[in-house]
Write a structure and sequence with these properties.
Helix content: 25-40%
Order of helices and strands: EHHEEHHEEEEHHEEH
Shape: globular
Strand order of the largest sheet: 1-3-2-4-9
Structural class: alpha+beta
Oligomer: single chain
């Protein structure tokens, strides 16, 4: 599955913490190390250090530079291990997000990382969507659009607007959810350098 650019992943209302602080720090450091190793032309191990990190999961990596969005790429579907997903999406956010120039080595040392780890997708009824808790995926006829849980909160959308905007993200009519499109939901555990104070070498 190709990495997908997405809306930036700021903090969202907490649900439950699946990952310990140590696991969060490990994943954040992996994201930084994946970017730096690419710039420094060296290898980094992508072997998951624990069974938890071996589980296939979708995830987004968001990069900030001086508090400004610098890149965001993710895998919606759980096709590879979480550990590899974080490493690959970090590199993709740094070098393949076409909205930005590739990250330089000088920039890489000052980046802040935010990770959004996605739960498995499940079909959901429109009235079951909870703002701030659920992210949405709308798909129909080979088109797919995704918005993270924090996006409607940031924009002040109601439930209907959130669903309609996700349809538009898929390149579908705003009312596609009423005309055969599949509506799926996921939750995301979001954490980043600002909360975990995790940087390589510190």
């Amino acid at each position: 599955m190709l990495p997908q650019p997405e809306e930036h992943a700021a903090s969202s209302p907490a649900t439950h913490d699946e990952f310990t602080r140590e696991e969060r720090v490990t994943l954040l450091n992996l994201a930084h190390e994946s970017i730096l190793s690419a710039l420094e032309h060296r290898e980094v191990s992508l072997d998951p250090p624990s069974p938890h990190f071996s589980e296939p999961r979708g995830a987004f990596t968001t990069l900030y530079l001086q508090r400004q969005l610098r890149g965001c790429v993710g895998y919606v579907l759980p096709v590879i291990s979480l550990y590899r997903t974080v490493a690959e999406t970090a590199r993709a956010a740094a070098f393949e997000d076409t909205r930005f120039a590739p990250v330089t080595l000088a920039e890489a040392r000052s980046l802040e990382v935010s990770l959004s780890i996605l739960s498995p997708l499940r079909v959901i009824k429109p009235e079951e969507v909870e703002l701030g808790l659920h992210g949405l995926v709308v798909s129909y006829g080979g088109r797919r659009g995704l918005l993270l849980p924090q996006v409607p909160v940031e924009h002040g959308w109601d439930r209907l607007t959130f669903i309609e905007q996700t349809c538009q993200k898929a390149g579908l009519p705003r009312d596609a959810w009423k005309n055969g499109a599949t509506l799926e939901a996921f939750t995301a555990e979001v954490f980043g350098d600002a909360s975990e104070v995790a940087r390589p070498g510190e």
